[in-house]
Give the backbone structure.
Amino acid sequence: MDSFDFIVMIIKVLFVGMLMVSMAPVMAWVERRGSALIQNRLGPNRMGPLGLFQSVCDGIKFAFKEDMISSHVNKFYYVLAPLVSLVPAFMTFAVVPFASNLVYEGHEIRFQVANLNVGLLYVISIASLGVYGIIIAGWASNNKYALLGSLRSSSQMISYELSMGLALVGAILCYSSLDLNTVALYQGQTLIELGGFAIPKWGILLQPLGFLIFCTAAFAETNRLPFDLPEGESEIVAGYHLEYGSLKFSMFMMAEYANMFTASAMMVTLYFGGYQLFPGMHWLLEMMNLSGLSADIARVAFEMVSFFVKCAFFMWFYVWVRWTLPRFRYDQLMDLGWRVMLPLSLINILLTGVLVYYGVI
Amino acid sequence: MSPERMGIPNTANIHIEPATVNDPDDLWGDSRVIVNIGPTHPAMHGALRMVAQLNGETIEKSYCEMGYTHRAKEKLGENRTYHQFVVYTDRLNYCSSLLNNVAYSLSVEKLMGLEVPARAAWIRMICAEMARIIDHLICVGINAVDLGAFSYFLYGFHQREEAYTLIEKLCGARLTTSFTRIGGLMYDAPDGWEKEVKAWTVETRRVLDEMDELLTGNKIWCMRTKGIAVWDKKQCVEWSVSGPVARAAGVPIDLRKTDPVMFYKDVEFDVPVAQNGDVYDRYLVRMEEIRQSLNIISQCCDKMKKGPIWVDDKRVRIPEKEVVQNTMEGLIHHFKFFMTGFDVPAGEAYTSFEAANGELGFYIVSKGTPRAHRMRIRGPSVWHYQTLTPMVQGYKIADMVGALGSINVIAGELDR
């Protein structure tokens, strides 16, 4: 690795790191304004244009609040818990590619922090570490409601990780690769040609059932409504982060939004073509009539735009669902996980296996 | 880290008394988790407390406590004149204070044998139904919030604020209205008020349809509410449950139909009755009652005419400002009227009125003085709250939250 690669790596890490950190304030704003839009009210509109600085103010407030630690908590684990849930949330995005490779003066630049050939496994394994933060928080808080919340969350995460993993098996069978870059490239192929209009081979068309299962499980994994039982503010007050305040609380919130973003990115990469351009953007790119390096840079820019637009749609989808649906009950959630999602994902694997065997997909 | 440092006392040397046998209220006997739900729990509407023994998430045993909002209203009723007590009725069921005002005035008027003029009665009916609507809107809304559907709540809440604006035009206050007087009203309705009310009913009907679309058929909502916290017809009768909760279980009693006061026999409306007595049926009954109340309001708006709002009885009528400020007799009358109040003939009367939650009754014993000798209030929430413990036995905590929302216990009315 020479100095150029090193600098590129630093820039990539910084970019992704800042992206994850800024996700919480941006999403907090989207959530507030989005819920206001859905609920026919204004939402925060005083701080800055469209209330954009409201989240900044919140950040400042969190930072300057007294960092109280109740006397009855187990201090070591209490302080550890937010970190344990935050770090894996920030780590998972590392393997997601957000544009295709670019060759610059003989250097191949990958738009992906880490190019792992087991990227998919990495995401699943690291994402599942996040639950430890919640369990530790609930346990260390020494509070009955917090413990109930963390119990709920651990059983929920484990149940839904099963169907999530099995839904991914179908996708892996299709793409025959665990490397997310390969997965994204695979989806650039044409599925069928319809009168000059190429329908790309996006995962949603190959794995519709798998996508539904993955999407539902992702909601459960990120503890969002209708699966926000670990928080369940009307039943168990605030669940696992009941005893947390100031920056520690905001770390849980940042972890939640980072997890949401990673889940959206995974949905996009696995089922919506990753950084593959939207239909029509190819045409626009050709219209620009560029060549050489500028053509490559334009392509990368277009790919990043399409990737982040797709991600933004799923982030909005999270917000949309949250303000529309009521919450499940704990046993109904388990029922759904084990009696509906698990058999469905097994059926999905069987179907995909048969189709792959006969060479249909 | 040692348990002591974590704040957990060392229990090795503490002698624990064995559990009392066969005491249904004893929760502390075994090692199950006991959670204290309330009095400051977000799902407890007002300061209510439930102590529940949990097995996992299931409530095995529980007991409820009340009294956190006790303000000795009934005793105050014996120390205040009849007019002064109107403001205390606002704080009974504070979600529908107009209804309490109307019910209280009716009971004192019954004791005195007064009948308010037609216009006052029509306005009172509009007030009562509007209060019923805002109470039901908040009840179904909060019930939905407790089960996670927040947007639904705000849809209804917006219309509720509009209703409050109309109420503000009527009496200058939004929450604590104190609108009625014995034998009349605080003010006459402003010009064109009934037109605004009618426009509001049209808009509310539209919003209700929207709310219906959002939640009534929702799969998760049905899963969360159907068959939950069932309280059947027989139990309702045995536990004196009234109002929408009883009607959801198939008890077809509505005091507006069975014992009509004012002009309730002159307006057309239906009494919705459901059969299952679960949270979902209570929700449906409330939604339908809102629609029926809107019907009543628009009929009232059509039928009400200009006219006096005060009964022509010098005993109770607040003297006109014109007379008070220009004549000596008027001034003295005014002074005496407000300083000592008016005498109510000796006797006793119980008047009940169909409030938003059920039968709201005032039992007043008079010894012929300006203050009641005894005043008792039958708040429907008391009867509903006592059913909560057996109702949620064996259900999950989350169901308890839904059940409490559906019986709509209002702490002000419960503790009085």
Q: What stands out?
A: The CA atoms of residues 33 and 54 of chain B lie 5 Å apart. The longest strand of chain B covers residues 58-65. The longest helix of chain B spans residues 118-146. The interface with chain A takes residues 1, 6-8, 33, 35, 41-43, 57, 144-151, 154-155, 158, 214-215, 218, 220-221, 223-224, 396-399, 401 of chain B (CB under 8 Å).
